[in-house]
Amino acid sequence: MAASIAHPVKQLRPHASAETLAQLVGVTSGSIPQSIAPARQRPPPQAQPNKQPNQQGRPKQQQQRHSQPRHNTLQLSGADVSRVRTLSIKGQRSIVGLVQLMQQYASAGTLDKYNLAAALDRTVQLGKQADSSRDGAAAWAVLRPLSMKLLQTFNAQALVALLRAATHFGSFSTDELKAWQAALKQQQQLEMLPAIAASNALMSLSTLAAGRKALKAAVDPILVVRLVQGWLQLIPGMLSLNVCQGLYGAVFLGYPFSQQELDRITQQALKVDGRFTAENGAQLFRAWSLLDAAWREWDSSRQLSIVAAASELQPQALYPCNAAVEEVLCRVLSVDMDAQQACQTLLAVGQLRFHTSAASIAALVDVCICYIKRQEQPVMSLFAFLDGCALLGCRLPPAAFKNCLDAVSAACASNPPDAPRYISTAAWALAHLQQCDFEAWQQLAGLAAASSTADWPAVSLCRLFQAYMHVRAEHGQAVQLPAQLLRAASAALAQEINIQGTTSALHSRVACELEAACPGEAVEVEQLVGPGYRSGEAALEGWEEGWLQVDLAVPSLRLVVQADGPYQYFRNKPGVPLPTTLARDRLLRSWGWHVISVPFNISKQQLADHLTQQLRELR
Fold first, then answer.
1. Do residue 488 and residue 576 come from a single domain?
2. pTM, 2 dp
3. Exposed site from 7, 140, 243, 325, fewest CB < 10 Å?
4. Using an 8 Å Cβ cutoff, are 611 and 598 in contact?
5. Which Pfam families match (predicted)?
6. Where a domain ends, among 498, 526, 549?
7. 62-106 pLDDT per residue, tens
8. Domain residues for 479?
């Protein structure tokens, strides 16, 4: 809920009657109606004989002033009238009534920034109610130009109310965002925003940035840094609701927290205040997974977000403690969830590489499946659900599997431009779960054939080719794709591999030990392999069958050695490979290769013994 807009005027007395307040709300001229005045009048002086002072010693002018009767109207200051109007706005029960009131004030020339800020907040509140989206859009069409006209008069909280409304109604131009940021940067007390306003500002900015690339590029990184640093000062005593929203917004925008800051934020988010919701839990999980992704990007390519660069801080390898993750998951499962919250939580747990109980994962999956059966699953939630299941190795019940395929077909029909994303996500997830049978592949391949290859982004092509290899290995050469699409998919995967980093120190160390363990055999580093023991250029020549790049290969022994890093294992159980890691090794074995996995945390002393033992078992 957005912060209410502060006003410098003293509040109306709380004991004022409802009838009196209702009459005050109608004030537009600045005077109290006659019907209210008698309640505020005193009896004339002659009715109070006991209180008459001795006027003998007073000057004549003062005696005349005190003997004059009072008027029957009470004048309000302009600030009082503004406050009464603000109360009227906050009390509106419908968007239509609110808009009519605002238009009335605007036409009379009496609309001010306080009224407008209150109207923005109230419109968002009413806009979240059922069947109000059309009225909300109409209200925003009225409030938007009025707000931009008064933009330079807004205080920081009013500016946050405007941004929150723009986010809710999904309509803000790049120029408007730049003007809004410039106005906010001029606020001298920006760092003193209340906790709820600071959290709303970060969350709203991140939502706008996620919606359009142009808006994301227009975000002012210095302003974000100021907002986050001010928000951090407010963490003690902050409600869990605001903690989760602010953290997610800041992380999405690219702010690099320290481990100490993350621990403090997580601790505050988990304080029991009765405000924690399933949505907050999903925000926490997503923020944690984004922090992990930011570190991986920095670790592999030294790429910084513009916000991180502006902060002059570097990303760190951050992770919440295992107990905190389990606590959040427990709380999420104990409250009501909708489809989006359940699916986002499932996906975030998978992206975190967090190994939890089968019962917890099953509970999340059950919530998602209930919505799928009722066909109440939002499109993007469906694909978060499929990705989450694949990352955690959670197979679907047969009925849910069929419902998912039907939902994919419906999504492609209703939104053709996003069909490549829908098809590739479903194919990749089902293939890794070993649930993409021949009939399912035929259905997905048919959907893929209906779209132009030129419309497929690189990430979707890579996922489609990976799915194709897994399904073809399982069901044989009957698994097909259109030739042009298949060629483009193979090329996209090759391009992605070329972009990836160079050989790691672990790879080099394993290569030396492998050469010692296999004397006289050629050891190839970062080699391409394919079906039928093909390697090198031969693997690429058979691209229709599939190929993978492996860390080390000994072609003469049909041996692949994978020096797996931490991202191939669960974070909280580093000895347990991820389901996607197991699927990769399963594919290599189906092509006739022996696979040895070398864990990233193996010591130098253990490495030689590990390779020797594994080779002995293969022979």
1. no
2. 0.80
3. 7
4. yes
5. RAP
6. 498
7. 444 444 444 444 556 667 888 888 898 988 888 888 889 888 888
8. 397-498
